[in-house]
Write a structure and sequence with these properties.
By secondary structure, the chain is of the alpha/beta class. Among the domains are: 52-132; 134-234, Lambda Exonuclease, Chain A (Alpha-Beta Complex). 38% of the residues lie in helices and 15% in strands. The protein has 8 helices and 7 strands. The protein has helices at 25-33, 35-44, 52-67, 77-94, 98-102, 109-128, 181-202, 226-246, and strands spanning 19-20, 136-148, 151-162, 168-174, 208-213, 218-222, 285-287. The strands form 2 sheets. The chain has a 5-stranded mixed β-sheet, sandwiched between helices.
């Protein structure tokens, strides 16, 4: 209790300033696709309802994180399968409403089939690489680095490997199938983001960026260079400059397109004859070190798992 506030006083502590958004791969992609979507997610933090596929992605990422916590010789398919149940139990314990959000209840037959589909993704993972031969220096690491004094970059890195010769590899798991050209460009945008973060933090260009698609067992490998990453940094600065131009008066405009079909916010989008909520103003508090909202709070993803955006991967189900 404040020593200057009498007992029983109705005085309340001042409300903490809302945290300023950082730029993550997901939020940068949101702004490029639809500035209003960026506002709804990064500023208003409007609720969104996760899908089974998205939550399955979060679950599979959690299992792979646990797998790499094991000694290398123990990273075998049987171990991954045995980790699935405990990982699901932990997810439900921290996010109880997830079961009823996705299923009719814990006895829903669809739940067992859904867990089986997660097992299938894990089995496919082992066809893409042998984790016993991987030296991962970090798994599901929160990356925090400032590109410029007023441009904070934040995101969760699935895995960072270091070869015996010191070469660095950035690895990202995708629980969907390998995408069409646009989706591949979006995935590569995410990898370049993390490659730039590694360059800023370690002063070394990653030798390899690798995407593992667990739905169809395909992979994509790419080797960036320093000039390319510096150009990518310029792109991020341009995106952030556009965000800052829109921030003072909330001039985040909608961009109607095919992605609108799966958007949770059409009811409040002017492009769909909706009315957005009043603009709450650009947050002025400390930089948000999280990537997504916490569960149960006003303006969160409905039922979002703790610490997610909506998942430690920067986007739930990535």
């Amino acid at each position: 209790m404040d020593s200057e506030t009498p007992a029983g006083s109705s005085a309340e502590a001042p409300e903490r300033p809302r945290r300023r958004p950082a730029l993550s791969p997901s939020r940068a992609s949101d702004f490029r696709r639809c500035p209003l979507l960026y506002r709804f997610r990064a500023v208003d933090k409007l609720p969104e309802t996760p899908t089974r596929a998205q939550v399955r992605g979060t679950l599979v990422h959690a299992v792979l994180e646990k797998l790499f916590a094991l000694p290398a010789p123990e990273r075998v398919p049987e171990a991954a399968r045995s980790l699935l149940g405990p990982a699901w139990d932990e997810l439900v314990a921290s996010w109880p409403e997830v079961v009823t959000l996705l299923f009719t209840g814990p006895e829903d037959p669809a739940l067992a089939l859904w867990l089986d589909s997660a097992t299938a993704l894990l089995d496919t993972y082992f066809t893409l690489e042998d984790p016993r031969a991987v030296t991962a220096t970090s798994v599901e690491e929160l990356v925090e680095v400032d590109l410029t004094p007023d441009l904070p970059l934040r995101g969760y890195l699935d895995r960072l490997d270091v070869a015996p010769d010191g070469a660095i590899r950035v690895v990202d798991y995708k629980t969907g199938a390998s995408p069409h050209e646009y989706g591949e460009l979006r995935a590569m945008f995410q990898l370049k983001f993390y490659a730039l973060a590694v360059l800023l933090m370690r002063g070394v260009v990653p030798a390899e960026l690798r995407l593992l698609y667990l739905a169809n067992g395909e992979s994509l490998t790419y080797s960036p260079d320093a000039d390319e990453l510096h150009r990518f940094a310029t792109l991020l600065q341009a995106i952030w400059a556009a965000v800052q131009r829109a921030a003072p008066d909330g001039d985040f405009r909608p961009n109607r397109g095919p992605a609108c079909r799966s958007c949770d916010h059409k009811a409040v989008c002017p492009a769909w004859d909706g009315t957005p909520p009043p603009y709450p103003g650009w947050p002025t508090g400390p930089v948000d070190v999280g990537i997504g909202p916490a569960p149960g709070a006003a303006g969160t993803m409905a039922g979002t798992a703790p610490g997610t955006d909506a998942g430690p991967q920067g986007m739930i189900g990535s």
